[in-house]
Design goal:
- By secondary structure, this protein is of the alpha/beta class.
- Helix content is 54%, strand content 9%.
- It has 17 helices and nine strands.
- It has helices spanning 2-11, 20-49, 58-63, 75-92, 98-104, 109-136, 146-149, 158-177, 226-233, 247-257, 324-337, 343-348, 356-373, 379-385, 398-430, 438-443, 449-479, and strands spanning 197-201, 208-213, 217-222, 237-242, 264-268, 274-276, 279-281, 294-298, 311-313.
- It has a five-stranded parallel sheet. Strands 2-3 form a two-stranded antiparallel sheet. Strands 6-7 form a two-stranded antiparallel ribbon.
- The radius of gyration is 47 Å and the shape is extended.
- It starts with a helix and ends with a helix.
- It is a single-pass membrane protein.
- Residues 67-110, 444-480 are annotated as: Disordered.
């Protein structure tokens, strides 16, 4: 009813025939209602603007690492409010650029410190880079390698400085590409103890083969004839075991193949290779040996790519039993016993080096047939093989005589090895007890070096006596 009356008053209260007193009453009601509505709106605004106060005190915020201003508000909150104000200002006015926005943004003391330290870091880095570049472009020094200075002179022109910088910069990377030493092996022993040739043998997939299975994990198999191959050829060759794997993986395998270092003279590993064109190469020129007296047997062509004329390539061994190691022995024995001046022309004479053992066996069979078919004791064959005719009237083929002599030496050598192993075993048993305690070291009750030497000599005599007793027992047991 009030709404009807209000609408009627808006139109014309006099036209409806309402008295002025009634019109005034309706107008006062309308004004009071409007004031009530405005007061409720003000109350709502006050409730919205009344923000809840935080229970965190200024001390608690300071301990937590929050910067607090004088009014007790976190500076980050003030920063957010400033950003909101900037956003509102940009919405009303023209949009500002990113540079202006970053200038208006408030920074805390932590941000200022970070920028300061970052600027100092950039300045220091640039100064160090510039100083290092100038230092590497300096003139050559007398102690620097001649190879490095080749075709690059001194002077401070831009081109010469750039060349010197480039040469020195590249030499930094060659440090990681070259072996750790310029000579991987020490100088050879004097002639009475020197082997005529050096034989470099790979380990993986030639002497041993490793496989991994889910049931057993890693297992390593030794190739049939590996012990005989190493033991027999050690009387003719200086054997160098050059593994294609890192030392931490291959050293234990090499120790098991030759525990007392009787057959293998030196062990080399992947660390001693030259890294070039993305592959590791066994550079024979780094061995400190005459290349005309060096032979390498390997299953990877990349290993001998720098000296392919010295290589006998072999197919990788897959773990199955074969006799390829034993079949290589006659050819290698022939090379070592003929006082070969250069092994490379002999290796090049074979058409297929991978089947070198088969081709050499065919050549020997032909020579044997002519030797036994000729009535002159095969003097021409002796000359062809480089053997002097000091065999008397023997009708045996020269290579057979050489092999028989080598077999006798091998048996004698293996007997010495077994005796040495037995001595080492007895010595380890005798020396297994602790000679000196920690108390002796602390109190200084250690014997003098002369007394220690006497004790070692006495222990060695005991070991020799025990060894002789066991040797006699074995002989008596064998005679029975």
């Amino acid at each position: 009813m009030l709404s009807i009356l209000r609408n009627s008053v808006r139109l014309n209260p006099r036209a409806l025939g309402i008295v002025p007193a009634a019109a005034r009453t309706l107008a006062s009601v309308q004004v009071s209602k409007r004031l009530l509505t405005n007061s409720s709106t003000l109350l709502q605004k006050e409730i919205k603007d009344d923000k809840p106060k935080s229970i965190l005190t200024n001390d608690m915020l300071f301990k937590a690492g929050v910067d607090v201003d004088e009014n007790g508000q976190a500076k980050n909150e003030g920063k957010r409010e400033a950003e909101e104000v900037e956003g509102e200002g940009q919405g009303q006015n023209e949009p500002s650029s990113k540079g202006e926005k970053s200038k208006r943004r408030r920074q805390t003391s932590t941000d200022i410190k970070r920028e300061k330290y970052a600027n100092w870091f950039y300045i220091f880095s640039l100064s160090a880079l510039a100083g290092g570049t100038i230092y590497m472009a300096r003139n050559w020094e007398p102690q620097e390698e001649e190879e490095l200075k080749k075709d690059i002179g001194n002077g401070y022109t831009m081109s010469l400085m750039y060349k010197r910088f480039k040469a020195r910069f590249n030499s930094m990377f060659t440090y990681f590409q070259e072996p750790p030493f310029p000579d991987l092996l020490p100088p050879p022993p004097p002639p009475p103890y020197q082997r005529p040739l050096t034989l470099v043998i790979t380990l993986e997939d030639f002497l041993v083969h490793s496989e991994w299975s889910q049931k057993y994990g890693w297992r390593t198999a030794k190739r049939p004839g590996a012990d005989y191959f190493l033991g027999y050829l050690s009387q003719y060759f200086e054997i160098v075991l050059f593994s294609s794997n890192y030392m931490m993986y291959s050293e234990k395998i090499a120790e098991k193949l030759d525990p007392i270092h009787a057959f293998v003279s030196y062990n080399l590993f992947k660390e001693h290779c030259v890294y070039k064109d993305g592959v590791h190469i066994k550079d024979l020129s780094k061995l400190n040996r005459d290349l005309s007296k060096v032979i390498i047997i390997d299953t990877d062509p990349n290993s001998y790519k720098l000296q392919p004329e010295n290589a006998i390539p072999m197919e990788p061994w897959n773990g199955e039993a074969d006799d390829k190691l034993v079949r290589l022995i006659p050819f290698l024995e022939y090379l070592a016993t003929q006082q070969t001046k250069d092994v490379r022309p002999i290796l090049d004479s074979f058409q297929d080096k991978k089947n070198l053992a088969t081709e050499f066996d065919q050549r020997v069979k032909k020579l044997k047939a002519k030797f036994h078919g000729d009535g002159s004791n095969g003097n021409w064959a002796l000359k062809a093989l480089g053997v002097t005719n000091d065999m008397g009237g023997s009708q045996k083929f020269p290579l057979d005589l050489i092999h028989e002599e080598g077999q006798k030496n091998y048996l004698m050598f293996m007997k010495m090895i077994e005796e040495e192993k037995e001595k080492i075993r007895i010595q380890q048993e005798q020396m297994s007890g602790q000679t000196f305690t920690l108390k002796d070291y602390v109190e200084g009750n250690l014997p003098s070096p002369e007394e220690q030497m006497k004790m070692q000599m006495e222990k060695q005599k005991e070991v020799d006596a025990l060894f002789e007793e066991e040797k006699k027992k074995k002989k008596s047991a064998e005679s029975k």
